[in-house]
Amino acid sequence: MTTVIHSVRLIDGGTVTEDSWVAFQDGVVLRTGTGDEWRALAPGDTGVAFDGEGAFLAPGFVDIHGHGGGGAAFDDGADAIRTARALHRAHGTTRAVLSLVTASVDDLADRVAVIAELAEADPTILGSHLEGPFLDPGHKGAHTESLLRAPDAAAIARLVDAGRGTVRQVTLAPELPGGLDAVSQFVAAGVAVAVGHTDATEDDAFAAFDAGATILTHAFNAMPGIHHRAPGPVVAALRDHRVTLEIIADGVHVHPDVVALAFAQAPGRIALITDAMAAAGAADGHYELGGLAVTVTDGTARLDADGAIAGSTLTQDAALREAVAAGIPLAAAVGALTAVPARAVGVDDRFGSFAVGRAADAVLLDDALTVRAVWVDGIRT
């Protein structure tokens, strides 16, 4: 059966095209076009035509860094993962890498294995993201300091093996002993390596990028800032065209003017992530993140112990609104939620655009950029 979503403003490939349509068949994109040519593709009872009524239609969002939502954390097993994924899917995130906070290697291996099993049954789960334990204690953020450690080959091999090919991303501090060797080992295993929770200098970051790291985890957060005599990892990432910079555009983690600066300096290389913890889409109150007590007030999550920001309560549609409010053109902001993150973790051959043959994932948005409808593999959810 063919499904056609027509009469939309199609956002894809850096442009917005009026009076457009997209046709899905067998779970993938069949064709796109403009005008009324779509009528021949969804005739009568052999197809489905959905009138977009002039709304925006974007590819399904891809979140490569989030920890949970709907009151549930990705660290807490299959049922919690299903709950959190349902929340984010309703907000347009059709595919996601599930981020795990620092834990013991034993616990992380178990959690990675759970995600590997779920990914076999649920193709909207792209795999896991190990945010720790190979992080700098001085930039630990919401990670348990006693569990942080330098990387070693045996621990890396165990985690990669537990994931059975589904460990999609790892965040590490490359200046730690063995850090550059860890970058090489993860890259050789097909894992996208991100520099983050780090005390890296600009030179340290460049060395990591030369070793194969290609992402900067939540740029500006949990790392040295930009100083005119010590540029740090952010400037290194902005200058290196191989690198994608994650940004948490929630109005709390990064000032909107700095978000706009990052987009201007690294066009086509900004990935808008949520870094969402369990409280995303849930009420303010008391939560736990990686065993640490967190209080959420007015949608901002902070550690009880020291007041540090502890993830976000962001959804990707809200990130889109924040980015546009910061002056980012709509097409560029949508790219930062779709094609850019998909490319960063090596799945842009399947997701992140309306190119023919890509997954039939779509998000319909009204003029206020609020989600009206979501399709996954051509099926409205």
UniProtKB/TrEMBL annotation:
One of its GO terms (molecular function) is N-acetylglucosamine-6-phosphate deacetylase activity. Residues 57-378 form the Amidohydrolase-related domain. Gene3D superfamilies: Metal-dependent hydrolases, Urease, subunit C, domain 1. Its EC number is 3.5.1.25. It is an enzyme of class 3 (hydrolase). The keyword Hydrolase applies. The keyword Metal-binding applies. This is N-acetylglucosamine-6-phosphate deacetylase. It comes from Microbacterium flavum.
